[in-house]
Write a structure and sequence with these properties.
The protein has 225 residues and is an alpha/beta fold. The chain has one domain: 3-Layer(aba) Sandwich (Rossmann fold), CATH 3.40.50.300. Helices cover 32% and strands 27% of the residues. The protein binds adenosine-5'-triphosphate.
């Protein structure tokens, strides 16, 4: 459902992605690991259309070169960037609903998707009316996940969601992702992480990126589809 074929990105004369190729099947969860600066975020941003890239990115049969960045979420792609960018004066629920409003989803569809968010992240319902500025950093990551899920009907991209999470919240976050996969087995996930061990028990494949090149693409023991 997602094909990256020799994707390249340069900033000025500096190549950051040097021919990244991999494919994702429907419903597959992939850990995308690599050191800081290896090119994980740039790969996700290329899929979202936030950086100019060479090569080819295909999603559900669409060549994304022909789909403007603001239209890509409409294909069912949700993105939770590393920095959460919550609107602190809006409530938690208003933050979650924002992408649905931008995408002009009908009220029935918005409600259906919000119910799915609260099903996998019930703690968000409890904090729905709180200003987003009053939640902790870890809770903010949950809100960012909820917001990404409002648009992610086919694919969700999570950039280092475990970074800086206290162990208890990291476990809770992983549990929410498992619940999401049970609820919605056709949703594909790419989760970036700098620690290669952290996602091994969760994703069925680990793709490793080193200095802008794919250095490994292996099924995870016991979880391969
Ligand atoms: N807008 C930009 N302009 C110039 N260089 C950039 C830009 N964005 C990223 N880079 C550089 O590209 C390289 C890859 O960055 P990227 O953020 O994709 O890495 P990453 O693997 O996600 O690492 P991190 O864990 O630090 O986010 C880094 O050397 C970074 O400094």
């Amino acid at each position: 459902m997602l094909i990256l074929d020799h994707v390249t990105v340069s900033f000025g004369t500096v190549p950051v992605l040097r021919g990244v190729s991999f494919q994702l099947r429907e419903g597959e969860a992939v850990a995308f690991v690599g050191r800081n600066g290896a090119g994980k975020t740039t790969t996700l941003r290329s899929i979202m259309g936030f950086t100019r890239n060479g090569g080819r990115i295909e999603f559900d049969g669409h060549d994304l070169a022909g789909v403007a960045a603001h239209l890509r979420p409409g294909l069912g792609i949700g993105y939770a960037p590393e920095d959460r960018r919550l609107f602190s004066r809006f409530t938690v629920e208003e933050n979650i609903l924002l992408p649905a409003q931008v995408a002009k989803l009908s009220s029935e569809e918005t409600k259906r998707r919000l119910d799915r968010v609260y099903h996998v992240l019930p703690e968000l319902k409890e904090m729905a009316r709180r200003p987003a500025g009053s939640v902790s950093g870890g809770q903010g990551k949950m809100v960012a996940l909820g917001r990404a899920l409002m648009l992610a009907t086919r694919l969700v991209l999570l950039d280092e969601p475990f970074q800086g999470l206290a162990p208890v919240l990291a476990n809770r976050y992983a549990e929410a992702l498992r619940s999401l996969r049970d609820t919605d087995p056709s949703l594909a996930l790419i989760i970036t992480e700098s620690n290669p061990h952290l996602l091994r028990g969760f994703a069925e494949r680990t793709i490793t990126i080193e200095r802008g090149e794919i250095a490994g693409d292996v099924p995870n023991e016991g979880l391969a589809a």
